[in-house]
Design goal:
homodimer, 262 residues, globular, Stationary-phase Survival Protein Sure Homolog, Chain: A, alpha/beta
């Protein structure tokens, strides 16, 4: 344990989730840990920030080298609050998760877990989001933590490329069934919505958002989806530069000053 | 007006915002318009989806070739609901905005306006988010709509590259002061938080999230920030593939199977 090292941990399942406890138990052997996590679950909140309601912070006490706070906002609010008001100095590492449920392919867009990591990356801090492919509250994180430990150790020794954070997805298998780590790109897939229609007691319609995932490139072998289907841990480097650089040239050729209004 | 063309419009300021009305007024000359916008303002909601509370849809009637609905969810919920339950067929174009306030640089990460466009892009529909650099409710959209008209016309005639949507930011100037359109990349900048501390009547602390923007590459001349500072409309192509492709090679060289747990 490096007593000069400060690690910030957050998640989107809330401070009481089993996954964040598993992550804290790994991280505390690497340095001092401060947890700033949502008071309640914030799944699907993506990179949302709270601008219309007040944000409150609650102290959950200190145990050894682990200090815990919760915040009634989103995962990104938690990172901002930690960086701005709670941490005594810039953290050396920001960890998010371990999420109950996968965040591969286009799920990265909706993921509060990964948004927190991206926010850390914006600040220039090495940041990693971890997700386990099992949604249940009582998921077994023991195999996951074995690999999370290795991954954190690797990152602390090598650092991460500038402007890049990691999206780590772990299949829900026993440690000996996991074939290793694969560095891969984000799969192209979408969630096909199936809004479930119901009627409330007053006779008004409402919907629950559900959906099924469709892999739009099922034959690709270099994607996170392929890795996970084939018992590998998928590590996808993720960036906050959303520019479609390959499209810049094409779009610059357009004459944007023509049009029906000429 | 092409009566076979279907245009979906949403925003993040809510169905009653002046900016969406301005966008509808432009779009209805190009085709049939269906508005599915948040019932209330949803600024800063990014790509959030509503999974914990029911979603309701409200009809706001039809006027000529414009039909309006609102949805109590996020901008991304609106797009999903429109695609899944409301529209009679796939739209030919998805427009989001015109946002009251800019969405250049890293603001794209927090923006509900741009998340709606990205969601449309995931579905393979040409999608554009428009933002005006003026937050006020009563902002004057007349210069903006002149250029929005041209941009929509351009896109309808040419289509957009696959997997790419556009982030269009418009300076708050008179039409004759705007020098034209610049296709540019997303600036690297961050919001420095300044949580404003207050105490409620019961004596408990709370915070309001505020912040100031810091441009981390103020000398770059190919960014959206540069374009806007220099009186250009900034058009940034945006993609939903968040993979840091340049980092893939480096990370593949790491021996991920070493670590302190060996």
């Amino acid at each position: 344990m490096d007593k000069d090292r400060l690690i910030l941990i957050t998640n989107d399942d809330g401070i009481h989730a089993k996954g964040i406890e598993a992550l804290v138990n790994v991280a505390k052997s690497f340095g001092n840990v401060v947890v700033v996590a949502p008071t309640e679950g914030q799944s699907g909140m993506s990179h949302a920030i709270t601008v219309k309601t007040p944000i409150r912070v609650y102290k959950h006490g200190k145990n050894g080298n682990v200090e815990k706070f919760s915040c009634n906002g989103t995962p990104v609010d938690c990172v901002k609050m930690a960086m701005s008001k709670i941490l005594p100095k810039e953290p050396d590492l920001i960890l998010s998760g371990i999420n109950h449920g996968g965040n591969s392919s286009s799920s990265v867009l909706y993921s509060g877990t990964m948004a927190a990591a991206l926010e850390g990356c914006l600040y220039g801090i090495p940041s990693v989001g971890f997700s386990l492919l099992e949604f249940s509250k009582d998921a077994d994180f023991s195999a996951a933590t074995f690999f999370v430990n290795r991954i954190i150790d690797n990152i602390l020794r090598r650092g991460l490329p500038k402007g890049v954070c990691l999206n780590v997805n772990i299949p829900y298998l026993k440690a000996e069934q996991i074939k290793g780590v694969m560095v891969c790109r984000q799969n192209h897939g979408i969630w096909r919505e199936e809004f479930e229609h119901r009627t409330d007691p007053a006779g008004h319609d409402y919907y629950w958002l559900t959906g099924t995932f469709e892999d739009l490139e099922p034959h690709a072998t270099d994607t996170d989806e392929w890795a996970l289907r084939n018992q590998y841990i998928a590590i996808t480097p993720v960036q906050f530069d959303f520019t479609a650089h390959k499209a810049l040239h094409t779009l610059k050729q357009w004459n944007w000053n023509d049009g029906t209004t000429d």
